[in-house]
Write a structure and sequence with these properties.
158 residues, alpha+beta, 6-stranded antiparallel sheet, 2 helices, globular
Length: 158
């Protein structure tokens, strides 16, 4: 079944959990969940869940409204999905980016359905690492720019 928050009137009841996987130069660098509220959950390349301090100054981008806590049960669902399927999710996300020849790609996975398992909901070429978490966005943008400059310097020296 899909996510069950225990409240059938809730807008998240019966919806899949969406995991937004960011791939940079063919390698997954991490992901966020962004199904319900501005997310302060970061999943590392290794599949480890990190919770950011949402009260930190300039944590979220300006277009976000009030921050709400993650609904009960979401972290448990994410842990279960990562425990069972993270290696598949990571490998398939990387293969998609590499086979398309893209330097950057976001692969959105739908999780939580026991019958269908993890499924790709959409792929997006972001072009600017427009993640909702500024700490991750800044770090990824710097890595992206550094890699492009390195490639240009290598191309210029040959």
């Amino acid at each position: 079944g899909l996510f069950d928050c225990g409240d059938s009137s809730s807008p998240i009841h019966g919806r899949p959990l969406e995991l937004k996987v960011q791939v940079l130069f063919g390698e997954v660098v991490g992901c966020i969940i962004n199904t319900y509220t501005p997310s302060y959950v970061w999943v590392s390349r290794e599949g480890v869940i990190h919770l950011w301090d949402a009260s930190a100054h300039s944590f979220l981008k300006r277009h976000h409204g009030n921050f709400e806590p993650i609904p009960m049960g979401v972290l448990e669902l994410l842990q279960d999905a990562l425990r069972g399927d993270w290696l598949l999710i990571r490998a398939n996300s990387e293969q998609l980016a590499r086979s398309a020849g893209l330097d950057e790609l976001r692969v959105d996975w739908l999780l939580g359905d026991a019958r269908w398992g993890p499924r790709i909901g959409e792929t997006t070429y972001m072009g600017s690492f427009a993640l909702d978490m500024l700490p991750a966005s800044v770090l990824l943008a710097r890595a992206f720019a550094t890699a492009h400059l390195s490639r240009r310097q290598l191309a210029g020296s040959s």
